[in-house]
Write a structure and sequence with these properties.
By secondary structure, this protein is an alpha/beta fold. It contains eleven helices and ten strands. Helix 2 links the parallel strand 1 and strand 2. The termini are far apart.
Length: 256
Amino acid sequence: MHSVRAAIVACLFIPLAATAAVAQPLRIAAASDLQAALPGIAAQFEQQTGHTVALTFGSSGNFFTQLQNGAPFDVFLSADIDYPRQLERDGQVEKGSIYEYAAGRIVLWARNDSKVDLRRGLAGLADPAVRKVAIANPDHAPYGRAAVAALHHAGVYGRVMSKLVRGENISQAAQFVQSGNADVGIVALSLALAPALKSSGRYVEIPESFYPAIEQGAVVVAASRQKAVALQFVEFLKQPASIRTLQAFGFVVPQR
């Protein structure tokens, strides 16, 4: 009798467990430059598929390290496609699932009330009146490496190096300038076009020839328990509506 009761109780819990599994959101680790563009794409995905999405933003290098150590993400959207490629070589992502969804661009951004003359471009950063220049940390943020490359290309890195304040990711670097803790910043165009920065500041684009292409890649994590949904999301990034959203925030989407 006891065993029958136990079996009935166990059966009662099976639907609950199944419901919990279905309700688990798709966990996406996304580069900070996607903070303005990705929520809209994720919302469209949820509406069309019924699957929920949980977005976590940060630096691509930090996510790379976390994924190497088994972080429980299903999809990785990296601002540097080399990170997904490295994870693929290590067998930590689904082989063949890498998709180059966009290329990013960098701009020089300052608040509307700043006296920094953006028309001088990167050369203007050497002016003594410019005390602090925000960039993302080049050790693990692709946009930080692009900023350093651009400063070297413009021949001002040596004169600007002591002024640099490094954000943990490109979003934090933008916050430094927006809050007034830096006079000017080298930030992602996608963030400069986001409502918060667009209304509070101004920018000039840094020529793409000044820095290596910021090629960005999406990939499905091998340890994901929702691989079918994860692959579905990566495919969703290829849809015209998703591409239009990325382009609206300044991303260059490679031709297929």
